[in-house]
Design brief:
Layout lengths: L4 H23 L5 H24 L2 E6 L2 E6 L6 H42 L4 H4 L2 H14 L2
Antiparallel strand pairs: 1-2
């Protein structure tokens, strides 16, 4: 496994920072209390900014065997990620509602065609309820087949 160039640079910077901190801490013993406190406060701010920068740029590659996975730092759950998560769900619901409306309209159109055919036919509607009419339709279908 090879270590990336940027990772090597990061390690070198960290080592240099540790050596510099040790040197400054040794020389700090002879300074007045007010100066040492200002230096300590500046050091705390610098470390805090470093951690913040590291969190924002925390993108790396995890190598496991023959696979490599890219990952970034945890962004947390904020308003934009909630909206981005809700958009596919909203699209799905709208799509299902649209399908339901289209199918309902098709079914209503089919029923309307059947009703209009029944009303414009020469037979009265009471003929369709006659038990002999079903037998008549069955026989007429069988005689129409060759």
């Amino acid at each position: 496994m090879t270590i990336s160039h940027s990772y090597q640079n990061q390690l070198a910077q960290d080592r240099f920072g540790l050596k510099l901190t040790a040197r400054l801490s040794d020389a700090c013993d002879d300074l007045p209390y007010e100066v040492t406190e200002r230096l300590r406060a500046a050091r705390v701010r610098a470390v805090g900014q470093r951690k913040l920068a590291a969190r924002q740029v925390a993108v790396g590659a995890v190598v496991s065997g023959a696979t490599v996975a890219l990952h970034s730092g945890d962004e947390g759950f904020n308003l934009w990620s909630a909206i981005a998560s809700a958009i596919p769900l909203l699209a799905l619901v709208i799509g299902l509602l649209g399908i339901n409306v289209v199918l309902s309209e098709e079914r209503a159109n089919e029923l309307a065609e059947i009703d209009s055919a029944l009303l414009t036919d020469t037979l009265p509607p009471s003929a369709y309820t006659d038990p002999g009419f079903a037998q008549f339709l069955k026989m007429s279908r069988e005689s129409a087949r060759p």
